[in-house]
Each structure stands twice: as structure tokens, then as C-alpha cells.
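Annex B. Sample input.
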Amino acid sequence: MRYSDDVIEEVIRRTNIVDLIGQDVHLKRAGGSYTGLCPFHAEKTPSFNVSPSKQMYYCFGCHAGGNALTYMMEYHNYTFTEALKILAEKAGVQLPEESLSEEQRAASEKKARLLEIYKSAASFYYFALKRKTDSPPYRYLQGRGLTDETIRRFGLGYADAYGDSLYRYLKKQGMDDALLEESGLFRFDEKQGVSDRFWNRVMFPIMDTRGRVIGFGGRVMGEGKPKYLNSPESWLFNKRKNLYALQYARSTRKNYMILCEGYMDVITLHQAGFTNACASLGTALTEEQCALLRRFTGEVLLLYDSDSAGINAALRAIPLLKNAGITPRVTDLKPYKDPDEFIRAEGAAKLEERLQQSENAFLFEIGQTALSYRRSDPAEWTAFQHETAKKLLSFPEELERQNYLDAVCARYGFSKEAMSRLVSKEAAVMPPPEEKPYSSGIQETRKREKDEKAPLAEKLLLSYLANYPEAYPQIKDLISPEDFTDPFCRRIAAALYQQLENGSVSEAALIAHLPDSGDESKAAALFHTEIRVSSGAELDRAFTDTVAGMLRASNEARLRDADITDMNVYGRYIDNQKKLEQFGRGTILHLTWKDE
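Annex B, continued. Sample output.
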């Protein structure tokens, strides 16, 4: 749904940005603003500024900036709509409802009731576990090294052995049988009645990216089968489209995520400080899960089990991740079976070392291929070289292909010259591949830059207009938004002029409507452009010079880019030249000096 500008501005206006960011960043008051260590890059000296009057933040180090909505999107990885809804709820702003059909409204209401069922079930399981701290399920979790805080954070619980405890509990809450059946938490049988789907199991709530419970996984206590049981596919829960613990991992400050196989692996990793870990839900990794990961990261380290099943799972996951535009790397956990076992035996520091040594996905694939050939057999080793040459052809760029060829030759002792000739020979006989060429999946970590930097005078003028209300009446007849030569500054100027005409400036509301990712930070940088003056006279002179510089630059651009035979353009040029002459005869514009 597209929310109106008024609604968005109301949410921003009623959000205390200092309190919001202060939940994640230690802020100290500095004059009219607050400063702290930037949450978007590593630094030792605070360069992160939060302005309560502007309802904006800006980092003078990495140039990240924006408003409360931007912060929720950038720091917590929420979409615009998700961020708006969360802030609106916190601020007590009622967002307008969409115009829904009767069918859509019924579906929305059913979704809300199912979410309430899952939420109640999660609470029931959690308190059932906490009720007896000497019970087998509680001792099991403690034996796995989990603390009470970790148990609470992940909402772990216990489905007791009685078989219908949850059903009786939810019926007392007034839940409808039709919805309870649709939730997948129960089995309805005409002869045997209703029974809980999960019993005598440690329970792992599965949440969506907004932290709402949408399903469960359960590990049996004892020797029952299956060892792990997941909620069935339901109206809310689709295993292919969700990842366990992504609601926490999405907020990582790391530039990569860890992907593993099991619930306990993820939980142990988080408890050890690796809060960027998540897992697929009892199935092989899917395209949908890769697309979901791509929203939050450009690199994934695979910490799958070190047995043959885990290696095969990694080999299946690599092409899916690459096709999603993600760089996959593989972490060697041997001699341990999984991350949980590794951490309990070696500790977090040793695991961090292994993560830093994670292997390039292509080299991992080649390494696994090599295991199928005997090096001692010349025929088999030659066949391996031919297969490697074919795989190298999947790199369309010559430079990248050569780099991988060098790495493979160094690892296996191949002759570079001979392998280069073999690759060329294979290329001559190989038919054009039907599949996509191999991509390492390397993501550009920096956001797209604009074609050219905005002229300094244009940035300064926008800063004057945003920070000095008396600037606008003095320049609105001299300079219009069309006089800004930089396209980005022109868009900002048009919106800012409109706000000034209406009598109030809200930079935070202005940048909420910028269309491109990264524009929020650029706009914040414009409004925080530093004006270094030490007196009112210097401020007036600097402002006057900025306006004169703008007139001169726009006039030159107009004459350069337009048809000089167009009398309207030429007339505007002559008018601006007269204004410039007036400035040259000693015109001085005035701003209010704020001596802080």
C-alpha cells in the first residue's frame, strides 16, 4: 500500500530519533545534537551525529545518513513498509487501512488469528519448560550448554507427553476448532478425537523476519521417531521461504551471514557471539531462501556438517547462492561434525579463525571433484585436468578465468602453460553452454555512486535553506530549483522549496520520499554540509558568495546547454547577468548568526 506523505511525515514527527537510535548506539549530548560511534562502520572516534531538531542522523566518517525510517531500513534491514508499520505502532499512529475486498479482509483477519494461535502456543511451550527446571527437557538443553538467557531469547519450550495439553489450553482461550485444525498444530480424527501434533518434544519456535511465530520444530525426548519434526506447510508457514533465526541474523553488523543445517547449530553460534547465523528448515536450501538471504547480505559462509551428507548439501547450495548473486564460501569444521560440536570443543575464538579461512566455493568444488580421481594414475589425473579445464571455461571474463587457473595450478601442481593450452582446446570443441556462466557472486559492497558530484555551491545553498529560514525569502526570486545543475540537488531543491513555501522545513520527511536506495544518505550529507565561519559577518559573506556562485554557474550552464536563438533562455541569461552585476556592486545578504 502507498501511504500518503502526511501519514509518513506524522510517523517521523512523532518518533523520537534519539531514543530510537539510542537503543543500539550509546549517544552523548553535544550541544543541540548527540554523538556516538557509528553503527554502520567500525570507528574509535565518534563521528556519528543525531539531531533531534532535524529528526535526522549523519556520519561524517562513512556518510551514512537519513531519518528514523532510513535507520530502521539500514540498521535492521526492514523494508520501507515494515519500518513504517513498526514505527507507527511505537508512536501510536494509526495507519490507514487498505481498501480491501471482502475476501481480502477475511484473509487478513484469518492471518491475524492464526498468528495469535502460534504466539499463544509458543508461550504455552515456554512456560511448560520453565515450570520444572529439573525436568529431562530442561536438563537436555543445559547439557547442550545453553544458558537461561539463550533459552528465553529463542523462546525454547517443551511439549509435554500428555498428547492434548496445548489443545485444551487454546480451547480455554476461546480458539475456534476450524482455525486450530488449519494451524497444523493438531490432528483431528473422527474416532480418536483431537490430539496435539507435538508431544514429548523440545520445541523451537520458527519466526518470520518480523519476529512473529509462524511454525515450530520439535526434537523428540528419548528414542522416538522422527528425531526432528516440523510444522506442516500451512497458510502461514512455508519451509521453502523461511530461514531459522533470520529475524536476528538480519541485523548483523558483519558483511556476511553464516548458513548451517540445524536449530542447535544456530542457537549455539548465537550464544557464542556469531549472531549472523541462520539455517534452512529441515530441507535442502531453496531458491526462495537464497532470494531472501540476498535481501540482507552479499556473502554467505556455509557451515554444514563435515560428513558426506553435509558436503553434498554444500555442493547443492553453492550454485543456488551464486545464481542469487551471493558469494558462497565453505568453512572446514573437521575433525568436528558440526558447528555446535566445534564450539563446545574448541571455543568461539578458534571458530572465528576457521571462518576467516573459509574456502572459495569454486576451489571447494574442484577439491571435491579431485577426490574422484587417483593422482597416482596418469589416465585418471589427466581426466581430472580435462574436467577442471571445462569448469574454468564457465568464467566468461578472461582475467578472472586466468586468476582461477593460476590458483588451481598452484594447488595441484599443474603446468600453467599446459593448462592454458588445454582450456583453449576445450573451448574450441565445447558447445555453447545452455546454463548461465559461472559467477563468483561477488557483490559490490559500496552503493552505486552518481555520475558526478554536486557542485559545492549547490550543496551549500541547500544547507543554508534547510538551516536558516530567513535565507529563502532572499533568494527565491533569484534562484529556482531549475537553476540547480546537478539532477539530485535539483530534486532536493524542488521538494525543499515546496516545504519553505508552506512555512516549515522537515528534512527527515523530505528524504522519506526519495526514490533511490542510498539517496537518503546523500540528502543527509547535503543538509550537514559544514559551513566554517567564525562570525556573523563571515556568515553573510559566505552566503552571498554562495548565491552569486550559483547564479554564475547556472547562467553558464544555461547558455552552454540551450539554443541561444531561444529568446526566453537568452532573456533569462540577461536578467541573471544583471543580478550578478548587482552583487558585484556590494550587495550583501544577511542570515542570523548563531554563536554556539
